[in-house]
Design brief:
The complex is a heterodimer of chains A (about 375) and B (about 625).
Chain A (H helix, E strand, L loop, with lengths): L1 H7 L5 E5 L3 H11 L4 E5 L2 H10 L4 E4 L8 H11 L4 E6 L4 H9 L5 E4 L4 H17 L13 H27 L26 H4 L3 E7 L3 H11 L5 E4 L2 H11 L1 E7 L4 H14 L4 E6 L4 H11 L3 E4 L4 H20 L17 H7 L4 H5 L2
Parallel strand pairs in A: 1-2, 1-3, 3-4, 4-5, 6-7, 6-8, 8-9, 9-10
Helix pairs in contact in A: 3-4, 4-5, 5-12, 7-13, 9-13, 11-12, 11-14
Chain B lengths: L1 H23 L5 H34 L4 H24 L4 H55 L3 H18 L7 H13 L1 H6 L1 H30 L2 H146 L9 H22 L1 H33 L7 E3 L1 H11 L1 H4 L3 E7 L5 E3 L1 H18 L4 E10 L3 E8 L29 H11 L3 E7 L3 E9 L14 H19 L1
Parallel strand pairs in B: 2-4
Antiparallel strand pairs in B: 1-3, 4-5, 5-7, 6-7
The chains are: A alpha/beta (about 375), B alpha+beta (about 625).
Chain lengths: ~375, ~625
């Protein structure tokens, strides 16, 4: 396998198309056969067989297919071959498909038929480049699904111990001054509390913290319930606060409520991903708008999409995965490229605010 | 009942009492007053008369004369007064005792009067006789004396004279001559022969008269005294007193009765007033309760109206939500359909646009190639100075052509372009077919009722539903030679679509859908759609055509699909037959008449929702009642 990988590293990228329509495959074959080592499958199982045998760099799957949907195929591919960049290409984007492509398939792009050939080609080429140029993401250590266990694992195995250890050393130094683990009832909004003299990142590992960007108190409470006081939850109600909190507390996960000011928030999400690719975004919305979601995949690389009303369990599971993902990204900075987003138009205020954050990446990367 | 009886008895008693009091309080009749007065007058007059009688008799005695008619009439008046009293006393009312006393007094009075009458008559007679005797003596004496004198019997005449004088003296009230003397003198005369011899008769008569006078005077006086002592006025007074008492008592009884009547009247008035008050009160209470009742009634009516309104609203809401549900069902199936169709259209569009670009790229290659060829073959020898230069140039150009041929694999490019074009043409055909099918399916541009080729309709519907079916089932068609039927094509297409969708949904993994059409008898066509799906359990077989019955998960279907199918088929005068076996599959057979016997206006212009609602109108009414 290793030898094969070595051998193919110089060869053309391997591209797999899955579509039940032969004429699409025909077209794709003619389109990509020169630049790619092209594989074609007319249904999901065939595609999975190819993924098992060949180290596929990029898979492009149709959604509506007999027996196995595209999202199912991509979800299996994600487990089977994490390094394969996944793209969904579908003629009809139904809600379940889009939601599944985010939360289960963790797709790189969501393309809709008919897709302009230039865009298709560009996307596939970018995906191939990233697949080749970045190291493979580590296999997922924690299986998602068990809502109760999720937080225990992350908090006890990781954060909690680490935080305690650090605190212990600092207490010996006598320089410890402020709270470390914020209780749930404590006001999470940082600007209210004066920044302690000591650098906060020394007490909390950078990235351990959640910023909730929402005006919905109920949602903030649900997040606090989900973390059970073991992680600081910062609440922000506007962009300036978000930036301030990001600078002061370096949370690794952003939970953003896209129901309020959709345009600003979408823009913020997208720009944040451009400036701070390590920041993992969970989008929350009461309604599932296919276009919004597709936009957030392609421009914001949102990690999860959750529906309101938020349940603490679901939230905990997603947070767990998001924190893990964040840590993975921090440990492997090259992986960040895998979440490259499509360029967006100038964000104006958002951009100027975020300009200040560029230095932050250094803080994360301890 | 008892109370009413008591009330009636009480009312009758009160009335009787009133009548009795009225009778009692009636004024005494005039004659009573008159009688009473008359008795009083009578008593006085009797007193006067009696006194006058006594006085007359006394005077007569004293004057020694006949009392005369005056005394007799007085006596008569006194005597008659008893009867008059009796008559009048009868009239006087009064208590029994009083009347008895009155009667007794009257009787005693009458007895007294009788006594008076008897006595007075004797006195009258005796007085008359006495007076006659005295006047005889006074008149005859002198004559006799004269006679005797004539005969010269002077002595004897003197004797007679003495007798006459003595008698007259005796007879006078103040006479002092005793009776015995008279008798002696008479005896002396009678014994005188001379006298007797001369005038025996006269002397005898005189003697007898004197003797009568002598005998009569004292008894007469006694009798008169006795008469005067009879208590007529007292007796009369008693009568008057009794009458007065009786009268007064009667009058006082009337007065009492009147007082009683007044009191009773007042009491009765009070009772009646009280009753009236009570009546008024109960009337008011009645009025009030009536008003309350009225109000209650009104509020009841209002509530009924409100309830009715609520019910009507509920019914309206129900209808609206039913319409919405039907609409939702349509939207839901439409949504699935649109998703499928959208995919069916977008997929060709994807490769069509791709292919166009790819063909363009290839054409560009060929344009370059042709340009290069042109470069080679448009060289003209005469333009070159010498043959060698021309050859070198030509060969160079040919080399370019050859190089390109070698580089670009033009042949395969050509092949590719042809393939792409072929695919594109087929894709365009697909799209055209889809567009045509959509148009035919909806029939929006066609008459609502028309002749309809069932087989064609099935084919069009299959195209539309292809994306829903193709992942699930192979479709096998056994179309019979069936005539066109008269129907609403869009509705029948809807039936086909619903049945085909259901068949595809019944298949879990992969199966087969068999569509058969054939004639059914002379006048009908049968279309059956069989699937190899999960089948329908016997226990829900009866319910599957009910509106809102669904086995799909919440949100996946409204349960109206089959009910719409059933309704449309029913409206066409057709029949829907369902056979099913769990685990093996189901067969839905639609039997439709070839021609519509009569015009079915309901086939026109009505959409499914309305159709279903029209059907459910009765159910709605029943439901509203139940609510």
């Amino acid at each position: 396998m290793n030898m094969e990988m070595q051998a193919q590293s110089d060869s053309r990228p391997r591209l797999l198309f899955v579509d039940d329509e032969q004429r699409v495959l025909n077209s794709m074959r003619i389109m990509f056969r020169r630049e790619f080592d092209l594989y074609l499958a007319s249904h999901g199982q065939e595609a999975l067989d190819i993924v098992k045998d060949r180290d596929i760099d990029v898979i492009v799957a149709d959604h509506r297919m007999p027996q196995m949907t595209g999202v199912e195929v991509l979800t299996k591919v994600r487990k089977l071959s994490p390094r394969t960049v996944r793209i969904l290409l579908t003629g009809y984007a139904d809600l379940d498909a889009v939601e599944g492509s985010i939360n289960e398939g963790e797709v790189f792009r969501f393309l809709t038929k008919p897709c302009p050939p230039q865009q298709l080609r560009a996307t596939v080429e970018l995906a191939a480049k990233l697949a080749r140029s970045t190291p493979p993401p580590p296999p997922e250590p924690v299986a998602e699904g068990d809502e109760e266990e999720a937080l225990e694992i992350i908090l006890e195995a990781d954060t909690f111990r680490e935080v305690e250890r650090r605190n212990a050393t600092e207490q010996q130094d006598g320089s410890f001054a402020s709270t470390t683990v914020l209780p749930a009832h404590m006001k999470p909004v940082a600007p209210a509390t004066p920044a302690p003299a000591t650098e906060p990142h020394k007490k909390l590992p950078p990235g351990f913290g959640v910023i909730v960007f929402s005006t919905d108190e109920e949602m903030v409470e649900t997040v606090q319930q989900a973390v059970r006081g073991r992680l600081p939850v910062h609440k922000a109600t506007n962009v300036v606060q978000v930036v301030k909190i990001l600078k002061e507390h370096k949370p690794g996960v952003l939970i953003t409520d896209i129901s309020d000011d959709k345009a600003t928030i979408q823009s913020l999400t997208a720009r944040l991903k451009q400036h701070l690719p390590e920041l993992v975004t969970i989008a929350v919305s009461p309604h599932r708008d296919v276009l919004d979601m597709v936009w957030l995949i392609n421009h914001g690389q949102i990690f999860r999409f959750l529906r309101k009303p938020l349940s603490p369990g679901r939230c905990a599971v997603s947070l767990q995965a998001a924190l893990q993902h964040h840590r993975t990204l921090l440990k492997n900075p090259e992986l960040v490229k895998r979440h490259a987003v499509e360029a967006t138009q100038d964000g104006g205020v958002v951009d100027s605010l975020l300009g200040k954050l560029k230095s932050m990446r250094r803080l994360w990367a301890h | 009942m008892k109370r009413i009886a008591i009330s009636i008895v009480l009312a009758v008693a009160a009335l009787a009492m009133l009548v009795s009091l009225l009778l009692q309080s009636r004024s005494l009749p005039l004659e009573v007053h008159l009688s009473q007065n008359e008795i009083a007058t009578q008593v006085e007059r009797v007193g006067e008369d009696f006194a006058a009688l006594i006085a007359t008799l006394d005077a007569a005695r004293r004057e020694i004369r006949d009392p005369g008619d005056a005394a007799a009439s007085l006596l008569n008046r006194v005597a008659s007064s008893a009867d008059a009293m009796r008559q009048m006393a009868d009239v006087i009312p009064g208590t029994a005792g009083q009347r008895d006393r009155l009667a007794r007094s009257v009787e005693s009075y009458a007895a007294t009067v009788k006594e008076v009458e008897d006595l007075a008559r004797r006195v009258l007679d005796e007085q008359r006789t006495y007076a006659q005797n005295v006047s005889f003596v006074r008149d005859e004496g002198p004559r006799i004396i004269q006679q005797m004198r004539d005969v010269l019997l002077d002595a004897e005449a003197g004797q007679v004279f003495q007798l006459v004088v003595a008698t007259l003296d005796f007879a006078s009230p103040v006479g002092t001559v005793p009776a015995t003397e008279l008798r002696n003198m008479v005896a002396a005369l009678n014994g005188n022969e001379v006298i007797r011899a001369n005038i025996p008769r006269e002397i005898e008569r005189l003697g007898e008269t004197v003797l009568a006078i002598a005998a009569a005077k004292e008894p007469l006086e006694n009798r008169l005294r006795e008469l005067g002592q009879i208590p007529v006025p007292q007796r009369a007074e008693l009568v008057r007193a009794a009458a007065r008492d009786a009268y007064r008592s009667a009058a006082s009884t009337v007065e009492e009765a009147r007082l009683m009547l007044s009191i009773y009247s007042v009491a009765l008035l009070i009772v009646v007033g009280f009753a009236a008050f009570r009546l008024q009160a109960s009337y008011r209470a009645l009025n009030r309760s009536h008003a309350e009742l009225e109000q209650l009634n009104q509020s009841l009516e209002q509530r009924v109206a409100e309830r009715t309104q609520e019910l009507a609203d509920a019914l309206k809401n129900l209808k609206e939500s039913q319409v919405q549900l039907v609409q939702a069902e349509k939207m839901s199936s439409l949504g699935q359909l649109v998703a499928g169709i959208s995919h069916e259209i977008n997929t060709p569009l994807l490769y069509l646009s791709n292919n166009a670009v790819l063909i363009q790229e290839r054409l560009q290659l060929f344009r370059d190639f042709v340009a290069k060829c042109n470069e080679a073959f448009s060289l003209k020898a005469e333009e070159f100075k010498d043959r060698n230069a021309f050859q070198a140039q030509f060969i160079g150009a040919l080399k370019n052509v050859k190089k390109m041929l070698k580089q670009e694999d033009l042949e395969s490019c050509l092949q590719e372009a042809e393939d792409l074009a072929q695919d594109s043409i087929e894709g365009l055909n697909d799209l055209t077919e889809m567009a045509q099918s959509l148009k035919d399916f909806s029939r929006l541009d066609r008459a609502p009722v028309a002749s309809f080729d069932v087989n064609q309709g099935l084919d069009k519907t299959l195209i539309i539903a292809r994306n829903l079916i193709k992942h699930k089932a192979e479709v096998r068609k056994f179309y019979g030679d069936v005539p066109e039927i008269e129907c609403s094509p869009s509705q029948i297409n809807q039936v086909f679509l619903n049945l085909l969708t259901n068949a595809a949904q019944a298949i879990e993994e992969r199966g087969e859908i068999v569509i058969t059409t054939k004639r059914h008898g002379d006048s009908h066509v049968a279309i059956s759609i069989a699937d190899t799906g999960c089948g329908i359990p016997q226990e829900i077989m009866d319910k599957i055509c009910d509106p809102f019955f669904t086995t799909k998960e919440v949100g996946k279907g409204t349960g109206l699909g089959l009910s719409i199918v059933n309704e449309i088929v029913r409206r066409h005068g057709g029949e829907l037959k369902i056979e099913s076996e769990v685990g093996k599959g189901s067969v839905f057979t639609v039997i439709l008449p070839i021609g519509q016997r009569k015009e079915r206006p309901e086939l026109e212009g009505l959409d499914d929702a309305e159709a279903l609602l029209a059907e459910d109108a009765e159910d709605n009414a029943a439901l509203a009642e139940a609510v």
